[in-house]
Amino acid sequence: MKTVHFEEVKDVMEQMLKTPIFETPEKRMLATLSKKMLDPNLVMDVRHKIFHEPLSLSPSKDVILQEAKRLILNEETQALYRRQEENMLESELKRFQSQLQKSRPKFRGPYICSRKIMANSNDDQFWAGLTGIAKKEIEILSDTVTEIESSGRIEPKTEQSAKLEVSNYHCPIVVTIKDKPITESKEDRLELMRRVFKALRRNVVQERQLQDLRIKVQERITTQRLQHTFHTWRTFVDNARNRAQLKKDGKEMSKERKIELFVNAISEKQKELAKLQNKTNSADVSATLRRTQSADHPINPISVKKNSAKTLTVVDPPAKHRLNAQRRIIAEQKAKLAEQNRIIEDLKLKQIEKETQRASQDTVNVAKEVLAHVGGRTRRTLIKLIRDEGCKDKSIVEPPRLPSPPKFLIRMEARAEARRERVKRAQEEREKKMEEKRKKEESERRAEDEERKRLQLEAQKEARRLREEQEQRRAREAERTKQLNQIADDFRRKYLLRRYMMEPFFRLIDTKYNYIKIADDHYQGSLLRRTLGIWLKETHERISVKMDLASAVYNRNILWYVFRDWRDFTRSEAKKMQVATDFHDMRLQEKCLRAWNAKTVESKVQTLNDEQLAREHYGKRLRAKYFARWKDYPTIAWDMKEKEKRKDKWRELVQRVIPDFDPKQRGVAIED
User: Which of 533, 584, 600 is CA-nearest to residue 116?
Assistant: First the structure.
């Protein structure tokens, strides 16, 4: 049987304690935790799905306090977010109510049936009830109107508006019905959309601020836990070194006592490892619960997305979208420049054509003026020119045959020839000016083309520079991601080395000492009898400590469960009260609407009857008035006939006295 010497075990333990766990790169990583770098622990946990808790050698009260702080912080964050949402909704509702009051009729007095709680849009029963009531009221009103129209007592409405007043109802309302509907303008709708987008943008900014605050708090808690773990590990190493030093100095200690202490240390280590494993399992469960809660909460998906964006570096940054947007802008600008150049060229061509037509028209007009004063040959030349210009005047193109002109016409032809020379020189000067203008326009167009090409080259250079910056940034991000992944892999390898090498080593030592116990069975009995009393006492003490801790945790859990049940009961009661209030408001509104509708229909019918009576009375008065005037017409007609007869007699007398008198000049002619 092979035995294990205690000195060899002690040397191996000292070598393991002296082995450096953190090397220089990891120390640099810990020193730069305050900077905006990724935490290797978070990277490792996300990649390998490991949720572990540090070695907690502190009392249970610290764990409870940390959990309470985390819960309080989460509740405060959620309350702040809900408060901001409520404030934003209240402000939007107030603005909407103010706009609605401006665009709707006003009440004469305070509206007693005011309602501050709006019905939910998902409440199908509420909206179905209101729809049914409205349909019934509309059917009743339509039946009443059809009956009145069938009786023939009313005529189509001609007035532009009618005011209906209901005075018997305890909420007096004045309703003004107008033919012209109230419509919102396009500017009002745009202003409303602008306000809604501003509110949405403010909400998004506030959500981002809250998420940044939450991420910072989580990073701070993670850093504190990591520091606490390092402190615990250093304390454990120092205690182990002190124990090794005490063991080395205690030469008077017997071999049996050393074996007993070593066995106790192994048993304590196994218990600590079991406790750590239980805490790791509980941490996995709590992390799963937190993930389920975060899936239900509206804020946490964004935070998870941001955390994942922090832990796993994205190689494709948003600069790619900016580059694509700039490319689209450059392409649009190119298309606009090409369209502008095409329009400018078309306008220039149209201007040149107009000027050419104007010049040809001027030439034809001058030729027409000169055509009657020139000889035969010159006339034929002008006619040919006019034909070339497209003139269709036959009197000009086909002139009559004239005899040979006299000398003064020859001199006129000479003057016309001189005039033609002047016209020709003027035409040449005009063509020269047109050529210069065309050259100038060509140079301007060439300069514009050069300017456009220069702008295109600058845009291409800018796009190339942005693309190079994008590539460099992407390379830096890839290098940084590679370094962080390398750091995380190194950290995980060392973590696995510490975790999966120490435990097998302790199991090996346990197996070897079991073999020693089997070999020294005759000595083990006496050793167990002596150590049984000490072990029993230590066990009772530990059991009492665990019972105290369990009772404290149990009391804390009972208190938490009772508070949670009370909170749920209070919320349910508040919700029931809210539902009852909404139902009461809905019923009250339904009754008010029915009463108002009945009063409105009754008032409408009465108003229509009054209008019909007024029209009939007006018709009677009008007929009586015109009949009275018609009765006076025969007397007036007799007087007019007598007056005309007297006028005719006077005309005859004037005609007899003055035979040459023309009555048509005076307007007194006798009509036969």
Answer: 584
Written as six digits, the tokens of 638 are: 């007799």
Contact between 36 and 480 (Cβ < 8 Å): no
Rounded CA separation 286/307 (Å) = 18
> Per the confidence metrics, is the pTM higher than 0.85?
no
Domains of the chain: which residue ranges? 38-110+192-312, 319-483, 625-666
Query: What is the b/e burial string over 232-249, where b = at least 16 CB atoms within 10 angstroms of the residue's CB?
Result: eeeeeeeeeeeeeeebee
Looking at residue 327, its amino acid is: R
In the structure encoding, which two tokens stand for residue 383, read together? 């006619």
Token pair belonging to 302: 């964004």
SS in 3 state form for 437-462?
A: HHHHHHHHHHHHHHHHHHHHHHHHHH
The candidate with the shortest Cα–Cα distance to 50, out of 280, 295, 304, is 280
Q: Render pLDDT for 107-163 as a digit per residue (tens, 0 to 9).
A: 444 444 444 444 444 555 555 554 555 555 556 655 654 554 455 444 444 444 433
Measured CA to CA in angstroms, residue 633 lies from 184, 624, 644, 645 at distances of 57, 15, 17, 19
Q: Give, in degrees to the nearest 5, the angle at Cα 304 between 301 and 309.
A: 125
Give one DSSP letter per residue of 212-249, joined into a string.
Answer: HHHHHHHHHHHHHHHHHHHHHHHHHHHHHHHHHHHHHH
